[in-house]
Amino acid sequence: MKKIILLLIITSLTISCSNLTGEEIARLKINNISTKGNVFSEETTISLKKGDEISFWSDMDFEHNGDVKLRFKVKVFIGETKISEIEIDPTNKNITVGEVKTTLMGKTKWRFTGKNYKMNIKKDETYIFKSILIATTNSSLKINKAELVIKK
After folding, report:
1. Could you read off the pLDDT of 120-140 as tens digits, one per residue?
2. DSSP 3-state helix, strand, coil percentages of the chain (rounded to 5)?
3. What is the pTM of this model?
């Protein structure tokens, strides 16, 4: 009986968390900084309906010395037509899950999943999302994970 109750509690918590954070519909595994010589671009195609609200989440794990600024640059297309361009600071988040940040002797290690931006869909259509990750110059920056997650 205790096992059944525990299973129900775990299932309930999992469903509640999904309701709070949304359902993942796409993940752009960028995981590299784009520079003038090397562009690491990822894209995904999603069919959406008018009135849908999607959110952009960052799933990050990186380390550096000193200061660094990161940005996901996201371009949204319908067919060949660019309808939007968004810059998302992954460290500027309004919901955070599993954040661990340590700074010791000037070296920062930071990992988190965070909600950064939301977008309302204006019409039924198939949308193409293309993204890159850009950063300020910092030779100590090491990206272990930099993924842009789209949730509905």
Report:
1. 999 999 999 999 999 999 999
2. 15, 60, 30
3. 0.85
